[in-house]
Each structure stands twice: as structure tokens, then as C-alpha cells.
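Review session, final week

We close the course with one last complete record, chosen because it touches almost every idea we covered. It is Putative outer membrane chaperone protein, a protein from Advenella mimigardefordensis with 205 residues. Go through it on your own first, then we will talk.
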Amino acid sequence: MSFSLAHTKFNKRTINQLLVATVLGVSASSVAFAQTAGKAADKKPANASSAPAAADSAPVSNIKIGFVNTEKILRDSAPAKDAQTKIEGEFKKRDAELQKLASTLRTKYENFDKNAPVMSDADRTKAQRELSDLDTDLQRKRREFQEDFNRRRNEAFSGIVEKANAAIKNIAEKENYDLIVQDAVTVSPRIDITDTVIKALDNGK
């Protein structure tokens, strides 16, 4: 793989913007209760029984949570791999042209560096201007290539994101998940359902 395509990655921030956390079955009041349960316990009457408090907090402790690694989905799922291969094919010709232009610039610079001591001032100035123009053209084309590549990739992966969201929602409903998140500091493999989502995408691609 050549330089331009090999160094093109899908930005994590873009992934997080595309694939939002799927939240099912948890009402606003339940979330509010989870955040204030401790304060409510402190304010209860001295003669109040502890049984009702235990009963109230039980639903919170039984919440079923899942985790989805969005980067892995957009890297390892079959639809993502197919899209990546297709896009790289679309940009292969432009990428080769960039490599050719970079090679030409490198050769001209090496020749200039070798011959500069014996060149006239006029020829040296002309050669330097040509090298500068070639470098400017190369940088512009690289920038345009990267922008077009990223735009095309985002378009293709948006469709995969929609399918992934649908798969996550379907899994959550079938397996009674209350909350599925996509970002966390640390995650137990026990609640990671990424492979399940990838399998659903692969089967439905």
C-alpha cells in the first residue's frame, strides 16, 4: 500500500459522532433516581423501614448494560472491510499519480543538489523556482486527495453506522439490555457485545 492510503485513518472523534450510544428502556426518572439514591437515603425519617429503600434500589442494581467498540466495528466487520477495499480501489489511480509526482520531485532535487555548484546563477535560480513550484503542486494535490478520500470514506461508513445502530437496537430488544454504551475508560469482556454486533452486520451485509 502506498503512502497516502496507508496513512489514512478514520478519526475516532468522527466515529463517535456517527455512532451514538444506544439507550433503551431507561426512563429519565430512573436515571434521576440512580443519581440521587444516596441523598434520598440520608433524608429518610429515622423510624422509616429499610425494606422500601432496598426494594426501590433493586431495579437500578439489576440494570443490564452492554458495551460496543465502534472502532472495531468500523475496522473488522465485513461491510467495513468491503467499503475500505472499494474506496481504495477508487482512489488507487490518484494515489499512484501522487507517488509519481513525489518521485519526480525527489529526482529533480537530487540532480539539483548534485549540479548546483557548477550551475550559473540564472540556471540555479530557475531550477530552484521549478522545484518550489513542483513541491507546492504536490502538497496541494496531497491535501485534495486526503480531503476527497476522507469525504468518500465518511459517506460510505455512514451507511454502515446506520446498520450498526439498527443491529445494536435489535440486540438490545431481544436480549433485554437497558443501556448500551460505546465509550468507557475500562470495560469487562463480560459486557462487551461488539463481536455480536459485527456478526449481525456480517450476516446482513
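Two points worth writing down before the exam:
Residues 41 and 48 are 10 Å apart (CA to CA).
The longest strand covers residues 65-67.
Good luck, everyone.
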